[in-house]
From TrEMBL:
UniProt domain Thiamine pyrophosphate enzyme TPP-binding: residue ranges: 49-196
Swiss-Prot/TrEMBL keywords: Oxidoreductase
A GO biological process held by the record: small molecule metabolic process
Annotated source species: Desulforapulum autotrophicum (strain ATCC 43914 / DSM 3382 / VKM B-1955 / HRM2)
The name this protein goes by in its record: PorB1
Higher taxonomy: Bacteria, Pseudomonadati, Thermodesulfobacteriota, Desulfobacteria, Desulfobacterales
Superkingdom of origin organism: Bacteria
Gene Ontology terms for molecular function: 2-oxoglutarate synthase activity; thiamine pyrophosphate binding
Enzyme Commission number(s) of this protein: 1.2.7.3
Length: 269
């Protein structure tokens, strides 16, 4: 199958602003799925509300466009009922770590087999440019005209601490790297978290003098470095990219199925 076979082309052109990084994330995700040779009938995508959540309308998979912050909860229900399916869960700042924060840490803790894609543009884009848990200190937003004083979450550290068995980060500038990471995340047995830094020139870049989309992409090139690289060792203030956790751990649905088999007279303990 080609990438176009995974798209619902009748819903294009998409609704994202010119220069938005989310289209690049969609491209990387589809190329990862194509590279793995997955049948689209074996994939379920669940999403909540927000710019990032609109991805579920553009892919020709089984898809659920659900309520804000509950994408992982819906994905958990699907996984329990159909554990053989591949679950993809694209989320934005709020879906993942504001209203959806509790679902995020507990899905990681349980190590449920699904791939959570956190599209981090550091702003609430669809609702007018409010600051988010990923904005950080000193950011101008419609809800912070005099700059934010809230510290931001580090998605990688939070996912790792919560128990995710695969944790990685990339950017919309590093497209091929993102494809490779997403392939590994989807193929991983357990809860996979992939944070992708994604530019929002409309609400974040414009208010914070980040320039247009190309300027913001250049900043991802200049301000990030691969984990374990000489550049990162020489300048620890750079944002690290790459795979931070990749471990084999018991997967929740399989462990739950083991209990059922044991109680019904099976041999698993």
């Amino acid at each position: 199958m080609s990438v176009k076979d995974y798209l619902r082309e009748r819903f294009f052109p998409h609704m994202w602003c010119p220069g938005c990084g989310h289209g690049t994330v969609l491209n990387s995700l589809l190329r990862a799925v194509e590279g793995l040779g997955l049948d689209k009938s074996d994939i379920v995508m669940t999403s909540g509300i927000g710019c990032s959540a609109r991805i579920s309308g553009y892919v020709d998979f089984h898809s659920l466009h659900t309520i804000h912050g509950r994408a992982l909860a819906f994905a958990t229900g699907v996984k329990f009922s159909k554990p053989e399916l591949k679950l993809l869960v694209p989320m934005g700042d709020g879906d993942a770590l504001a209203i959806g924060g509790n679902h995020f840490i507990h899905a990681a803790r349980r190590n449920i087999d699904m791939t959570a894609i956190v599209m981090n543009n550091r702003i609430y884009g669809m609702t007018g440019g409010q600051f988010s848990p990923l904005s950080g200190v000193g950011i101008k937003a419609t809800t912070a005209p005099y700059l934010t004083i809230d510290n931001d979450f580090d998605v990688v550290k939070m996912a790792t601490a919560a128990g995710a068995s695969f944790v990685a980060r990339s950017t919309t500038y590093h497209v091929l790297e993102a494809v490779d990471i997403l392939k590994k995340a989807i193929d991983h047995k357990g809860f996979s978290v992939v944070e992708i830094l994604s530019q929002c020139p409309t609400h974040f870049g414009r208010k914070n003098k980040g320039g247009d989309a190309s300027n913001m992409l250049e900043s991802y090139k200049a301000n990030t470095a691969k984990t374990g690289s000489k550049a990162l060792a020489e300048n620890p203030s750079l944002i690290a990219r790459g795979i931070f956790v990749d471990e084999d751990r018991p997967e929740y649905c399989e462990s739950y199925d083991g209990i059922i088999k044991r109680l019904s007279g099976g041999t698993e303990s």
